[in-house]
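pasting for ref
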Amino acid sequence: MATFTDAGVYSDTGLSMSGNATPPDFGASRKSKPNVKSIKFGDGYEQRLSIGIQQDPKIWDLKWSTLTDSDASAIEKFFENRFGSESFLWTPLGDTTAYRFVCREWNRTFASSNINQISAKFEQVFEVP
């Protein structure tokens, strides 16, 4: 199982971040999207039902805005090696527990010489370990 950390090596990539790894920027956002099914009836009534045991997965929009070329490549390679489907462990900002996430989309911007920006969406998943 791969682990995405703000202070170390990205497993399975063959690349690692520099000694002073850059955590995601402040201003990261966390979104909740509970799994709810609803039925709307013709007379204006609605019935809602929570689906599953884990019905409130979190979605994080993260951004790193001052990455060196090698640090940006390490993060990007980590995401590429997972193909948007393999989960990894990540401890959300302000939390002490690691949860499973997938990263299905990310974007790398080459801001200037040796300064890169990466934005990524981490989606919490629940699966049997």
